[in-house]
Amino acid sequence: MTTASATARKLARRVDRRPRYNYTVSRAHGFVYYRVAKVATRSISAWLRELDPEPVYLTGRPAPFDPLHRLFRFGFVRNPWDRLVSCWLDKVIGPTDYWRDTPLKGLPFDAFVHQIATWDLDTCDRHVRRQAALLPPKGLDFVGRFEHLDADVARVADRLGLPASGLPRRNTSSDRQSYHAYYTPELADLVGRLYAVDASRFGYTFGGIATEGSETDSTRGA
Q1: Sheet harboring 72-77: ordered strands across?
Q2: Is the pLDDT of residue 8 over 90?
Q3: Which helix (H) or strand (E) holds 134?
Q4: Which comes out higher in pLDDT, residue 60 or 130?
Q5: Sign of the CA dihedral running 84, 157, 48, 172
Q6: Are 19 and 61 in contact (CB under 8 A)?
Q7: Is the separation of the CB atoms in 143 and 75 below 8 Å?
Q8: Which residues are paired to 25 by β-bridges?
Q9: How far apart are alpha carbons 141 and 158 in whole angstroms?
Q10: CA 43 to CA 13: how far, in whole Å?
């Protein structure tokens, strides 16, 4: 097996299938931010670092009686079709060295989608892992949306009694086409099947945001 193939296999799945989350803790301000890759994590993290220069970055799963459960816990999600395009533009064809030594680098979008379709999307690399596997299934106080980031960051700030003005912008792509332009009907259907749990839990369709019934809708007034 080549080095590139071996690296790709490690990206595709994790042997330990227990839930593992990436989260930022600030005991000074009383919050736990669950980071979902490709959902403005750099911008939100930069804002939080301005509030608390020494947050704690953790990976794992808090125990049921961990004191973290008493803090304000939140995360952000994004339309899964849009998130996948963002990942491809940044990690696959972008200038970053991420995935440089794997067969993924430089793939056309349709080939990239068909490649990750063979992966375990609940345990694979976090940039394409299902968002439902990156956020706890229950216990979150607020789930915001990338699609109205500033307004939802303001809601988080209001709950914490913190300023929300001037959210830093990091790793953004202002000149890209709408994500719809990257899909054929067949490819959109495939991604819909691959990320059906995200679409259902967070209220997304290929067209955009579903009108009701999602977890984000139920937590927005929190």
Answers
A1: 56-60, 21-26, 31-34, 72-77, 142-145
A2: no
A3: none
A4: 130
A5: positive
A6: yes
A7: yes
A8: 32, 56
A9: 13
A10: 27
Buried b (16+ CB within 10 A) or exposed e, 187-197: bbebbbebbee
Q: Which amino acid is at 36?
A: V
pLDDT, greater one: 62 or 117:
117
2 token code pair: 């080549």
User: Rounded CA gap, 195 and 90, in Å?
Assistant: 20
Whole-number Å distance between alpha carbons of 141 and 100: 37
123-147 pLDDT, tens digit per residue, is 999 999 999 999 999 889 999 999 9
Q: Is 27 helix (H, G, I), strand (E, B) or coil?
A: coil
**How far is Cα 113 from Cα 128, in angstroms, rounded to an integer?**
10
Count Cα atoms within 13 angstroms, Cβ side, for 111: 8
Question: In the numeric block, which tokens belong to residue 88?
Answer: 């491809």
